[in-house]
TrEMBL record:
InterPro entries noted in UniProt: HTH_MarR-typ, MarR/SlyA-like, WH-like_DNA-bd_sf, WH_DNA-bd_sf
PANTHER family associated with the record: MARR-FAMILY TRANSCRIPTIONAL REGULATOR (PTHR33164:SF57), TRANSCRIPTIONAL REGULATOR, MARR FAMILY (PTHR33164)
GO molecular function, one term: DNA-binding transcription factor activity
The HTH marR-type domain, residue ranges: 6-170
Protein name as annotated: MarR family transcriptional regulator
GO terms for biological process, alphabetical: response to stress
Alphabetized Pfam families for the sequence: MarR_2
SMART domains linked: HTH_MARR
PROSITE patterns xref list: HTH_MARR_2 (PS50995)
Organism: Devosia ureilytica
Length: 203
């Protein structure tokens, strides 16, 4: 069954036992997330922050400063010493690229190399005062812009939105039960792909 429009998708979800209102919400949310993803990939707010703050670095360099600054608690990371390898892991980039970007930040005075307190043979990376000011200013810029937007919401809307957003943010954490529940539908979709991929042989 081709799934080219919302009606066909809604029919599929209904057959899977998903209520019409829920199906409509799913499709609306998916459209919104795709829009967010395109805007996030453009890094519109980050570009604007660096421009308005007259920082003189690009987004890749800002990412490095942010990675030097803080751990990633969502991945179970705790605060500790940061090395070039740590920056590469936090940004999911090649270590050689991380090394080059870190060197640029050191050369421009936003970061510095230091000796590890835990192991004197190890070189760590720290923000300088200049780097710290940049990271804090960009964060404050983002909060000012978002805060201005959310100032138009009343307390009831905020009280409802934030917990629901946190709850929605976990929707991918445990998808195995859902894939098992809808194994039949998923198998049918895979068969549709397989059929569409076969080239008809000439008679």
């Amino acid at each position: 069954m081709p799934l080219g429009d919302k009606r066909e998708l809604a029919a599929l979800l209904r057959q899977a036992g998903i209520a019409t209102a829920t199906a409509e919400a799913v499709m609306d949310i998916d459209g919104l997330m795709q829009k967010w993803r395109r805007r996030a990939m453009k890094r519109e707010l980050g570009h604007r922050a660096l421009l308005d703050l007259k920082v003189g670095i690009d987004l890749a360099q800002l990412d490095v400063l942010t990675a030097i600054d803080a751990p990633a608690p969502e991945f179970g990371e705790s605060q500790g010493e940061t090395m070039v390898a740590t920056v590469a892991e936090r940004l999911n980039i090649d270590p050689s690229r991380a090394s080059r970007l870190v060197s640029e930040m050191v050369d421009q005075g936003f970061a510095r190399r230091a000796v590890s307190q835990a192991d004197a043979r190890r070189t760590i990376i720290e923000l300088t005062e200049r780097g710290r000011v940049v990271v804090d200013a960009v964060r404050a810029y983002k909060f000012l812009i978002m805060g201005d937007f959310l100032s138009e919401w009343d307390a009831t809307e905020l009280a409802a939105f934030v917990p629901l957003l946190k709850r929605f943010g976990t929707w991918m954490d445990g998808i195995d039960p859902a894939t098992e529940k809808h194994a039949g539908e998923i198998e049918a979709l895979a068969k549709d792909i397989n059929k569409a991929g076969k080239v008809s042989e000439p008679s």
